[in-house]
Amino acid sequence: MSSYTNKISLLAGLMLVESICMPVYASAVNDENGEAFQNMDSLNRLGQEAIKRQDYAEAENYFRRAREEAERNGSRDFIKEMDARRAAMYINSNEPSRAEIILAPYLGRGMDMYMLSDYLMALRFNNKPEEAMAVFERYVTDWSSMPVYGLQNAGDIYLRQKRYEKARDIYLHILTREKAEDVPFVQLGYAYALARLGHYKEAVSAYGKMANVSQRLNNVIAGDGDAFLSEGRVGFARRLYGLLGATESEREEYQLRYALALVNVGKDYDNDALNFRRDELLGDRNFYHEAEGILRRLEKSSNPDIAHDAEVGRYANRLHKGLLADSRRGLKKLLEADAGDAAALAVKSEYERNPQHELKTFYRESLDDDNNRERSAGAAYESYWGNNFYVSREVSRFWLRNGETKAVYWQSASGLRRQFDWGSVYGELTRYSGTGKKYGFRAELEYEFNDLTKLSLEVGRRMHRHAAAVAEGVSENYRSVRLSHILTPRLTVEGSYEWARLSDDNKFRSYSADVEYLLQVRHNFRDKLRAEYSKEKYAEDRAYDSPWRRDDYSVGFARKWDFSKIQTSWELTTGLGWSRDNDEKTSFAPGMRLEYTKGFADNQSLVVGVTLVRYFNKEESDDERKHRKSGYALDISYNWGW
Q1: 357-641 has which CATH code?
Q2: pTM for this structure?
Q3: Angle between helices 342-353 and 324-337 (to 10 degrees)
Q4: How confident is the model at residue 22 (pLDDT cuts 50, 70, 90)?
C-alpha cells in the first residue's frame, strides 16, 4: 500500500464538466423543404458522431454547415440548437472562450435557461467569475426555472469567490428539488459553505449524508478536512475524518491519512500564497501529540501495510519535534529490514535535509523614557549533539547607561538542552566579565500538556540588568513561570509571573499578560490584534535607574506583507500604550515598529527591526529624574542554518 500524503482538495475547485446536460432541441421546423431538413438533420448527426470520436474540428464543420442551411431556411430553433451544441462542445474541449462568443448574442431577458447555464459555465472556465455572477443575478430571477446543473455551476462560482451565503442558498434550493444522493457534489458544496460560515455542527451533519457513499466522495470530504486542518481547524477536521470508513479496515485507513496530515501540515506546497496562508494561520502551532497518539495505536493494526505506514509516520512526527535520535534509529531499523522501503527513504531524505546547526549574530540598541540606553552585540550558536541533546554557546557584550552611570561587561553562556516528546529540559552556565559577579546559571523545564497548552518553569541567577545595578555588582536569584494556551485557532493567550531576590536584599516581582488575535489572512498580507499588560515592582525604592513600581498597557495592530518570489516580508505594528511610574500620572505612548525580513539561499536570513515611541504627559519624578519625550529600539540579526 502506498504511503498517504497530505494534499488539499477543495470542493470549490471541482470542475464538473461531465455534469453538463445539454438538451437536444426538437427540430420543430415547419418543413417546407423536406430535402433541406433531411440535409440539416444528417449534418447534425454527423457532427454528434464526430464529437464521440473527439474530432472537434470535423464536428464544428458539420454543425456550421447545418447552421448555414438552417439560416437559408429560416429555422431559428435549429440555429439555436446548433449554437448550443457547438458551445457545449467547446466547453468540454477546454475552449470556453469560443463557447462564450457563440452564446453571447443570446444573452438577455427570456434567454433559454440551458443556454444561459452553459454561458455561465463558459465564463467560469474562462476565469471571469465576477462577470458570471453579474449575469446570474441580472437574468436569473426565478431559480426554479434554471436547470440543476446550471444552478450547481452558479453555486460553485459563488463558493470559489467566497460568497458562502449565496452559495449555501443556491445549493439548498437545489436540494429542495433533488435528492442528495442524486446530486452528491451539491450536498458537499452545501456542507462546505456551512463550514465556511462557521456552522460546524450543521456542516458535519451535511457531510455525513455523503460519507461512505463512494471512495470518490470520501476523498473529497478528506480533502476538505485537510484544507481546514491547514488553517488550524483541527477539531472540525477530526470530526470529518471520523465520518469516514464503513468497516474497521476503512476507518483505520482514513485515521492513518488524518494522522499523516497532522504530521505533514507544515510541508510546503508548490503555491507560495498557500504556504503563506497556512504558515500565518497556524503560527507556531503543531499537532505532534494528537498525531503521536493515533499513530501509536495504528502501529498495532492487524493490517501490516497500515502498521508499517503508521510506524514511518511516527518517525517523521518525531523528526519534526526535534527528536532526531528517535527518528534516526527507527528509520535505520526499517531500512535494514527493507533497503527499498520508499516511505522510510522519503523520511530519511527529509532527515538529511533538516538543519542541525544554527548560527546567529545580532546587534541591539534601545533608549526608553527613563533615559535607559542599552546596546548589545554578540553571536549565538546551537548544534545537535546526538541522542536528542542540543548544545549552545552565546557570547555577547553589553553597554548600559543612565545619565552619568555606565556599565560595560561581557557575558558568555554555555547551554545543554534535552528534547523529550513531552517538552524539554535546559541548563545553562553563564560567566560575566567586567561585573562584580563572575558566574550565573539558568535551568528551565518546558512541559506540553497537549498541542494547545504549554507550561514553562525557570530558575537561575543573573545580573540585574540596569546600569546602576550592574555598576554596583547587584545580581538576582530569580524564578519564573509562564503559561501559554491556544483558546481558538485565532486566539492565543499567555501569562507569566517572575519573582527575584537581589543580592542587596531587595526584592523584585513582575507580572505580564499577552493576548493575540488573528484577524485575517488575505492575498499576501496578514492582520493581527495584540494587547499586553505588565507590572513591575521592587520591595524597596533603591537607586536603580528604573522606577520602583511601573504599570504598562498597550494595544496594537500588526500587518505583515509577504513577497515570496523575492523571499522578503515586511511587518508594521502600530500601537497605543499607557504607562505609570511610581505615583506619577499615567502617560500616553503611541508607537510603531517596522520589521524587514530577507531570506537567502542555504537557510540564511536577515532581520532588521526599528521601533519608535513618543511619550506624552510625562512629569518630573521626586528624584528629579529627567524623562524623555521619545524612545527607540533597533535590532539586527543574521541567521544561518545548515
Answers
A1: 2.40.160.10
A2: 0.88
A3: 150
A4: very low
